[in-house]
Automatic annotation (TrEMBL):
It comes from Streptococcus varani. Pathway: Amino-acid biosynthesis; L-histidine biosynthesis; L-histidine from 5-phospho-alpha-D-ribose 1-diphosphate: step 5/9. GO terms for biological process: L-histidine biosynthetic process. This is Imidazole glycerol phosphate synthase subunit HisF. It holds the Pfam family His_biosynth. One of its GO terms (cellular component) is cytoplasm. Its EC number is 4.3.2.10. It catalyses: 5-[(5-phospho-1-deoxy-D-ribulos-1-ylimino)methylamino]-1-(5-phospho-beta-D-ribosyl)imidazole-4-carboxamide + L-glutamine = D-erythro-1-(imidazol-4-yl)glycerol 3-phosphate + 5-amino-1-(5-phospho-beta-D-ribosyl)imidazole-4-carboxamide + L-glutamate + H(+). IGPS catalyzes the conversion of PRFAR and glutamine to IGP, AICAR and glutamate. The HisF subunit catalyzes the cyclization activity that produces IGP and AICAR from PRFAR using the ammonia provided by the HisH subunit. The keyword Aminoacyl-tRNA synthetase does not apply. PANTHER family: IMIDAZOLE GLYCEROL PHOSPHATE SYNTHASE HISHF, IMIDAZOLE GLYCEROL PHOSPHATE SYNTHASE SUBUNIT HISF/H IGP SYNTHASE SUBUNIT HISF/H.
Length: 252
């Protein structure tokens, strides 16, 4: 059985790590390279970096950050934010990223997923999906940092993304983001029922019990957290001990 992964997420804005609630009210947390090194030394399995306000002008800054991180951590890491072309993805992979996440750009141009998968392999292509539950109980895909409802059904989009070549789904519940109230298990299980690739789940981690619960009650292969680790509420080591005690396969 594959070991479950604990993955800190570093939201980067203007070269700094930030954290918010429901995608707003951002607080400065620190330097991304320093944070990456600290998490690597603490025993995380992977890292995710999201340039949450990526623009073309900031791309060089992100590439340099990726290069510096790659020099200091020796675990897989994913970079996302503002990736709009095969060349954008190529630059991130050349700088040292192992995987690259696409979100808004893939909605605007689904062919991008296929083109990137054909050039770099499915294992390098992560499709990030930000979802929010609607009044009728369905989930919609949101883009532009969670500001715009596409009207697209989240389950349908997850299925299409994998058919196009996504090797992994990075699924974030906007309703749960930063709330520390537990992961959205319903949304996660609904997506897992229609795709056959690994899913990283994000949004809602508040304690070790939530991290254990998501692996006991869903097929998630990785659980992503930010606030609880950024602010020292719990350590990655404590989370892994709790998982081991619950007989969940984890790399200690």
């Amino acid at each position: 059985m594959l070991k479950k992964r604990i993955i800190p997420c570093l939201d980067v804005k203007d070269g700094r790590v930030v954290k918010g609630v429901n995608f707003v009210n951002l607080t400065d947390v620190g330097d991304p390279v320093d944070a990456a090194r600290a998490y690597y030394e603490a025993g995380c399995d992977e890292l995710v970096f999201l340039d949450i306000t990526a623009t073309h002008e900031e791309r060089d800054t992100t590439v340099e950050m990726v290069r510096q991180v790659a020099d200091q951590v020796f675990i897989p890491f994913t970079v996302g934010g503002g990736i709009r072309s095969v060349e954008d993805m190529n630059r991130m992979l050349k700088a040292g990223a192992d995987k690259v996440a696409v979100n808004s750009s893939a909605i605007a141009n689904p062919q991008l997923i296929k083109d990137c998968a054909e050039k770099f392999g499915n294992q390098c292509v992560v499709v990030a999906i930000d979802g929010r539950q609607e009044e009728d109980g369905s989930w919609h895909v949101y883009v532009a940092g969670g500001r715009k409802d596409t009207g697209i059904n989240l389950i349908d989009w997850a299925k299409e993304a994998v058919a196009l070549g996504a090797g992994e789904i990075f699924l974030t519940s906007m309703d749960k983001d930063g709330t520390k109230s537990g992961f959205d298990l319903g949304m996660l299980n609904a997506v897992a029922a229609v795709v056959d690739v690994p899913i990283i789940v994000s949004g809602g981690a508040g304690n070790n019990e939530h991290m254990v619960e998501v692996f006991q009650k869903t097929p998630a292969t990785g659980a992503l957290a930010a606030s609880i680790y950024h602010f020292g509420e719990i350590t990655i080591g404590q989370t892994k001990q709790a998982m081991q005690a619950a007989e969940i396969e984890v790399r200690l």
